[in-house]
Specification:
single chain; about 230 residues; mainly alpha; two-stranded antiparallel sheet
């Protein structure tokens, strides 16, 4: 297994891992967004609470959560390793450098964007994931749906999105995520060697549309509940 370890600890290997985990996390974002859009159904949160209960108690979903956490861990760790290697390879910047002419703003600031997203992720998990998994211990109120008691995560969402600074953090983080995805999506295909003059322009365009659409979908939720209060 020595060749395996050397391959995936190399710069190229780590880029491949980042690409695979990044695309996997993109699929998670789509699934998560679809579930969150049930907040707009207009049934006082019944559908969203049923969806949340299913996600919290289905054994397959719980197993996938472990895979998801590992995906995040590997993605973040490899990003840190690659950033350190890049700085070590070029400790002193070029005397004549025009980064705006050779790269996009998002590609030059992936570290900053990633940090913003990581901070938001910690806040978001603490505010929603912990109550959803620990129920009453996490401060959730209960709600009765068809004579069955459920945790009222919908109420938690509504209350959270009535706090202006939390809404602001959420929206700013979604903007950061959009820029992160715009660069990361096309870079993932490039790192995996899936580039072709015929298909690469489509991949880039699809990546931009995907990134903006998904992040807009997430951002519109707190904005809607804040102004609907």
């Amino acid at each position: 297994m020595n060749w395996f370890t050397k391959t995936f600890s190399s710069t190229i290997g780590r880029k491949i891992i980042m690409s695979i985990t990044g695309l996997f996390l993109c699929s998670f974002l789509v699934v998560h967004l679809i579930g969150n859009l049930t907040l707009f159904k207009g049934d006082d949160g019944v559908t969203f609470n049923l969806y949340s209960h299913f996600m919290a108690n289905n054994p397959i979903i719980r197993t996938m959560e472990i895979v998801l956490v590992l995906g995040f861990v590997f993605h973040i760790y490899d990003a840190l390793v690659l950033t350190r290697r890049n700085k070590a390879a070029r400790p002193v910047g070029y005397a004549e450098n025009h980064p705006q002419e050779n790269s996009t703003w998002s590609s030059r600031n992936m570290g900053l964007l990633g940090t913003v997203i990581l901070v938001f992720l910690i806040i978001h998990l603490w505010n929603f994931f912990v109550p959803a998994r620990f129920g009453a211990a996490g401060g959730l109120e209960g709600v009765v749906i068809e004579n069955v008691d459920y945790d009222n995560l919908y109420l938690k969402v509504v209350q959270s999105f009535q706090i202006w600074w939390y809404v602001l953090i959420y929206v700013i983080s979604m903007i950061a995520l959009a820029y992160h995805l715009i660069h990361g999506f096309q870079s993932a295909f490039q790192s995996l060697g899936l580039t072709h003059k015929k298909y690469t322009p489509f991949i880039k365009t699809f990546g931009v549309v995907f990134s903006i659409a998904v992040c807009f979908g997430f951002a519109i939720i707190p904005i809607y509940f804040f102004f609907a209060a």
